[in-house]
Amino acid sequence: MIREIPTHLVPEFWPLVDFMFAKALEHHPHLDIDGLLHILLAERAQLILVIEDKIVGGIVMESVRYPSEMVGNIVALAGEVGSLAKYGESVTKYLEDWCLTRNLSTISMLGRAGWSTFLSRHGWQTQPSLVAWKELRPHVRN
Length: 142
Hints:
By secondary structure, the protein is α+β, with helices and mostly antiparallel strands. It has one domain: Aminopeptidase (3-Layer(aba) Sandwich). Helix content is 35%, strand content 25%. The chain has a five-stranded mixed beta sheet with strand order 1-2-3-4-5, sandwiched between helices. Strand 3 and strand 4 form a beta hairpin.
């Protein structure tokens, strides 16, 4: 089953999933586990969990306003080994419905190249991309 976690319950569930998201964010240049929790607690994103007998995966979704459209963006996606093969279809459908019920015209994500195969099989458009950044000031993590 897939469930949205209300903001006031995020602190209760966070210790059960933070390790999954920490692994998923290892290669993210600008977001760490503390930042992800901050986004959730500030109600800038929604925590969605995949639960069988236990929590097997999680997604953090946000709504992004562009000048011409509103987009549902997957901020972070994490799960146990094998969870994509087992739950990928139902999670994809759930996230698409999540976007549609919020009048979002598109669903998007920025992820590693390995996601391309799975997503293109489910109707997503993918393209090779470059993620680059240059720090202009020293960044201090809180």
